[in-house]
Amino acid sequence: MTLAVMLYRADGAPIDTAFRKTPFGEADPFAEHREIAWEGPDAMAAGRVSFVGELEVSRFPHLETIVVVDGELTLTEAGAEPLVVGPGWGVVVGRGTEVQIQAQPGTRFVFCTAAGAASPMPGLTLLNPDADFMPSATLPAEVLLGPAPQCRSDNVFTDEQTQYRAGTWDSTAYHRIVRPHGLNEFMHLLAGNVKFALPDGDVLTAGAGDALFVPKGTSVGWESTERVAKFYVVQAVND
Predict the structure, then answer these.
(1) Structural contact between residues 44 and 112, judged by C-beta atoms closer than 8 angstroms
(2) What pLDDT was estimated at residue 103?
(3) Rg of the Cα atoms in the chain
(4) Domains of the chain: total
(5) In a designed cystine with 131, which of 42, 53, 112, 168 is the match (CB 3.0 to 4.6 A)?
(6) What value does the mean pLDDT take over residues 35-51?
């Protein structure tokens, strides 16, 4: 059975996720530091990195969304001003980006990567908790166990080659049935708490600052009693 994968707990509580210390591809700039919790046949992976020091990357080898949970990353794209990313902020690093990366002591981040095609898509895209939200679609009535929520989103990055989108989303409270997840999805919660109901009756609870990955096909429900906001990465996967 496909399961949701917890990547980080903001309160320091232990998690039972199995991480593998392994690079994401041959040219991975974080090869010595990367810990992968989930990797799929669709060339996507999610996990965590603890890193201090400096890297000079002439061509970033893949597409990667980074959300800092401790410390501070400074990313400087060739010819641009430095981009400082602290706890609770994120950045999407485009494939082919020439970038200098500096990490302060104690820096940790969670990530969601995609390999995809070799065509470059260079650049740095900031994920901002104070997003420019616009109204977005709510859920269909047949999956809801109560009133329909009001949802908003700010999709700031799209890569059609890998069917990869990243941005910020929020919603009023809602309750949804257990059903198979339709996409690969990385989530880093910015506000609120969610109970993810599992088919066996167990419940996985996540709150602000926590990060998890839900592979396509994972059967989960959703129950929130307050506003929830999150950074997301979603990837459509062909069956």
Answers:
(1) yes
(2) 98
(3) 17
(4) 2
(5) 168
(6) 94
Contact 2, 218 (CB under 8 A): yes
User: Of 107, 117, 69, nearest to 89 (Cα)?
Assistant: 69
Give me the residue label for tokens 């059967």.
Answer: 219
Length of the chain: 239
Range of the domain at 117: 11-127
CB 137 within 8 A of CB 149: no
Identify the burial level of 50 via C-beta atoms within 10 angstroms of its C-beta, where 0-12 means exposed, 13-18 middle and 19 or more buried. middle
Tokens 């990465």 map to which residue?
A: 233
Smallest CA-to-CA distance from 205 within 192, 195, 191 is with 195
How far apart CA 207 and CA 195 sit, in angstroms, is 9
pTM of the model: 0.96
Yes or no: say if 54 and 33 are a contact pair by the CB < 8 Å rule.
no
Nearest alpha carbon to residue 235 among 178, 150, 162: 162
In a shared domain, residues 103 and 186:
no
Tokens representing residue 65 in the block:
């969304």
pLDDT of 140-166, one tens digit each? 999 999 999 999 999 999 999 899 999
